[in-house]
Amino acid sequence: MVNYRLQAVILEVVDEQLKINEPKCTKEAFNNLMSLGYKDKEAKKMIASVLLEEMYDVMKNNQPFDEKRYCSKLSKLLSSLRRC
């Protein structure tokens, strides 16, 4: 089941990250996904899924956002897609 309201909000966050280029790894991941042949919307949804995972970890463990961990997760996503 998809929560479309939540999806829209998370995608807005990804759009904002891309717009302000912060964190920089978001735009790098987006550009890499596009170069792998993914469409704009698909790439943003993939990044959003990683962001949502990071947000879950932050809330579950009651700790601050960790940009390094987030960037690492984006990097792992790209690595796994390149192996396919």
Low-pLDDT runs of 5+ residues are none
The main sheet comes to: none
Percent helix, as a range, is over 70%
Multimeric status of the protein: single chain
Question: Count of DSSP helices?
Answer: 4
Please give the alpha-carbon distance between the first and last residues: 26 Å
From N to C, what is the helix and strand string? HHHH
Number of domains: 1
Q: Please give the radius of gyration in angstroms.
A: 12 Å
Broad structural category: mainly alpha
- What's the pLDDT, averaged over the residues? 95
Strand content range = under 5%
Shape: globular
Could you give the count of β-strands?
A: 0
Give keywords.
mainly alpha, 81% helix, 84 residues
What do these coordinates show?
The protein is 81% helix and 0% strand. It has 84 residues and is mainly α. The chain has one domain (4-83). Helix 1 (4-20) crosses helix 3 (40-61), helix 2 packs parallel to helix 4 (67-83) and helix 3 (40-61) packs across helix 4 (67-83). It starts with a helix and ends with a helix.
